[in-house]
Each structure stands twice: as structure tokens, then as C-alpha cells.
Amino acid sequence: MFEFCTDPETLSTFRWFSCYLTNGAHVLFYQSFLTVFALLAVTAPIALAFGFFAAAGARSPVAPLRWLGKGYTAMVRGVPDIVFFLFFVLVLDQGIEYLRHVIACPDWDDPIRQGANFIVCDAARTPQSTSPQWVHEVYNFALAVFTYAIVFGAFCGNVLFGAMRAVPRAQLETAEAYGMTRRQTFWRILVPQMVGLRAAGPVQYLDDPDQGDAASVPAGHRGCGLLGARIGRQPQRGLSIPASRLALLVFPGASGLLPRLHTRVGNRAGAADPETVARSGHHGGRRHAKGCGMICGEALQSYGLRALGYGERLLPRGEITLCDQVVLIGSGMIWNVYFAVLALLFGFAFAVLLAVAKNTPGRLIRKPAEWFIFVFRGSPLFIQFFMAYEAFVMLPRVGIEFELFGVMIEAETRWFARAWLGALIVLFLNTSAYTAEIFYGALRAVPRGDLEAADAYGLSGWKKFRRITFPTMLRLAWPAYTNEAIFLFHATALVFFASFPAFQQKGDALYYANYFADRTFNPFIPYPIVAVYFVIFTLIIIALFGAMNRHLNRHLPGEQRPRLRLRPTLIR
């Protein structure tokens, strides 16, 4: 960029650093931030509009609108956002081209889906291969905006619906008493009060794309941009789009997740030893004469605990059935549950200590807790995975020896670079920071009268905290902590995208979903299966934490018990 950068003598001076920061790669990196901010600026009002209409529909007296509003927020919020971004863009893009194909080419006789190829007539290409570059960029950007708006709209809709329910009924009845119609009451009373009650709620979710996009722009991706997945499409007779290029629209680093047409790039799900390749027909020939029940029973016996290393050593290669996919992906969910349960258990205890430390007047105790919470809440979880992995791989593989009270102790370090331990540590630290902030807010909200009553009864120190402060804090924080538990469970899907490798093909749900999508060239089956599993486990989390919430508030009258309102944070 600078003229002096062409002078070789610049390398011996400090000015070379300015040349390094202004080279082509860094300029593209800076431009990617402009793309993120533009995406946020365009997505925010659209997402708010989606959320507003979803909230209005959820409280509509018309049953179909009410079902649509509640179903939209429940389904989108129940699926991990990474899975939604990967799958929905593919469906949306191919759906647009399929509709155009049906309208523009009614006489087309060839099948549209031919293996991994999605082939439509020339008139249905979106955009046309002869279109200028800016048309491709605008189309890519529009798909990204629409996808993000749907996800953020669901979360904003849930917040706005809760705000509408929190508007005092007396105000609405007063408006009706003054002769206002239902429409006037909605726009003049309900909406202004809703904005006043929950103005900061949607902002929290609309602020998250800045961190969520970190998952969409992994390090090392050329261009570091959200767009460009389909920019390089060349004119051709048939439209043949690798699904991985469509996924790149909102997740550029996920090129290995969906099937490739021309090459197979080795990754964690696709890598196989020579013996596995030689036996690619395993289980394929003996299933034709068996019924569905026997096939499912065989799949359950062979792959039910495959993620833990038990059962069939080789993954299915020949005729892959629906039962194989359901069973093996369900087996991978064991690791997702493992990450969530252990991270929540250890994170809960550590978060209580952090919250108490942050609430302590002593500066030496309060400041470390504040900085820990700030760092882990201020950086994206996806980046934390990468940084932790880079730190763990630098540890000596032979272990670290140190002396403790005169005894030499050798600590094993090679397992830190494995997903089962390294990823668990990252999730534990991340959820500890977020949970600590929730508990800290609850500690500050403990009624002063409760503490004064405890002092009057002679309670102090540990007994006061155990009998008064901690139970009240837990009761106040539990609804928000439920949302954190749901988010953490969804965040376990990020382990697959992190650098932590799976050990002996013992992967999580997305690991096996990617394997099946790569083998069958059909992502429309494994990824929805993953989404269904996550929805089921999310409902289980809601039920368990709801029962605990009722237990914590069992001493309150029914009308005073706070209800769980699920407002999970999007990707951090």
C-alpha cells in the first residue's frame, strides 16, 4: 500500500510492520469486519420484525396464528444454531431454484437430484451464471440476512412475548373501559409498555452476531468473509453445486461438513484406514433380505455404543439405512450429554465461588473474579476452543514433572489435546463465567429484609449464607440458569468444529452426521436427525429444571411463583 514497502531496506526498520499490516490478506481481513457490521445493521430491524410478528401471533386469539408464532420460536430455539445455519441455507437456496425450475421449465424430464448434483434448467439458475459479480454478492448477502433474521427473530420473539405477558392486566382493562378497540389497545398501550419492559432484551441477542460470526469466519479462511461461497460459479450447461459451497454462505470454515463432488478431503469424519476402505461393503450385502425391524435391531446392537468404543469397529460403508443413521447419531449424542452434564456440574460449583468473590468488598479477591468473568464472556466460545487447543498442544507430550512437598509428581498432558478433556475444560470455564454473572446478579437482588432478619436471629457467616443467602440466590437465578444450561447443551455442537480431534472415531452427534452426509451425498437426513435429538434433550432439560424451579419456590403461593421463560443466548 505504501511506496516505501517496495524498498528492501525497509525490512531492517520498524516500518516493515506497517507494510505487513496493509498487505492483501490483512485488507481482506479488515473488510470482513465491514461485512459483519453491514450484516448486523441490516439483520437487526428484520430480526426485530420477525420477533414482533412471532410474539404478536403467539398471543393471538386465532388458533392457527397462535400455533404458528409459538411453533416458530420453539422450533428455531430448540435446534443448535450451527446446525440450523448449515442446513437451512442449503434448503433455502435449493428451494428457490426448485420453484423457479418448476415454473420456468415444466417440460423438464431429467431428475433434478442426481446423486450429489442438484441440476436444474438454465432458466432456473439463481443467480444466472452470466450475471455480474455484484448480483452474486447481493444474492449471497440476502440469503445470509434472511437466515440470521430467522434465528434472531425467534429469540427476540420469545423476549417480546414475555414482555407482552408482563404488561399489567389492569392497564389493558383500563384501555378497554375507555372504549378503545382491541387494535387501539394493542398499539397504544401494549406495545409501548412492552418496549419499556424489555427494551434491553432483544439488544442482547442482536449484539451476539458480532460474536456468533466468529464461528462463521475461522482463522485461515481466505478472505475471512461471510460471503463468497458461490461467487466463483462458472457458466456451465447444468447447475451442479457442491453442498459444501452452499454451507459456506454462513459458515465458511465448514467446507468439510457437507458432501463434495470432485474430491474427498480427509477430515475427522471422513478419514479411514486402508482396512476400512478395503472393507467398504461391510454390512451392505446381507441386509437386502432382512426386514426393517431386524435391520434396526442389528444397527442398535452394532452401533448403539459405538461412540464409546463398544460394538462394531468399522462404520457402515455399504448400504447405509435410516436405522444406521438414527442409532449412530444417537450414540454420538452420548458425548454431547457428557460435555453438558460435567461442564454444568463443575461449572455450577465454580460459578458460586466466582459470584461470591465478585460480590466481596476485598479488591484482591474481587478483581480476579471480575476479570475472569469479563474475559470468558467477552470472547467468542469458538475462539476459546481454538486458543485452548493451541495452548494444550504446546504442552510436553511426555508430561510435566514437578515437586510437591518433597514428592516428585508427573502430570499427564497428552490427553489435554483430546476432545473429551480439552473441550470439556473450555466448556467448563465458559459456562462458569456466564453462570457466575447470573449468580452475582441474584446475590445483589437478595432482599435486604431477608438479610436483616437473619442478623436479627443471630445468623452470621457460613450459616447465614447457607440458610438464607444461597437458597434465595438460587431461587432468583434459576430461570436464567435454565437458559444457560440449554445454551451450554447447544454449544456442545461447537466441539466438532473446534480443533480437538476425535479419538479412534469416537465422535459426537455432528461427527457422525457429517460422516453420513459425506457418504450418502444427502445432508437432508442426518442433520435433521441431529436437530430432532437436540430438541428432545432440550425438552428433557426444561422438564428437569422446571421441576427444580418448582421445588425452590414451593413455599410461595401459586400466583407468586416465577415461571421459566426460556430466553437462551445465541452463539457467544
Automatic annotation (TrEMBL):
Alphabetical list of CDD domains matching this protein: TM_PBP2
Name of the protein: Histidine ABC transporter, permease protein HisM
Residue ranges crossing the lipid bilayer per the database entry: 28-53, 74-92, 138-161, 337-357, 369-395, 415-434, 485-504, 524-547
Span of domain ABC transmembrane type-1: 333-545
PROSITE patterns for this protein: ABC_TM1
GO cellular component terms given for this protein: plasma membrane
Membrane topology: Multi-pass membrane protein
Places the protein is found: Cell membrane
Matching InterPro entries: ArtM/GltK/GlnP/TcyL/YhdX-like, MetI-like, MetI-like_sf
Lineage, highest ranks first: Bacteria, Pseudomonadati, Pseudomonadota, Alphaproteobacteria, Rhodobacterales
Tree of life domain: Bacteria
GO biological process: amino acid transport; transmembrane transport
Protein family according to the UniProt entry: Belongs to the binding-protein-dependent transport system permease family.
Primary localisation category: membrane
UniProt xrefs under SUPFAM superfamilies: MetI-like
Keywords associated with the record: Cell inner membrane, Cell membrane, Membrane, Transmembrane, Transmembrane helix, Transport
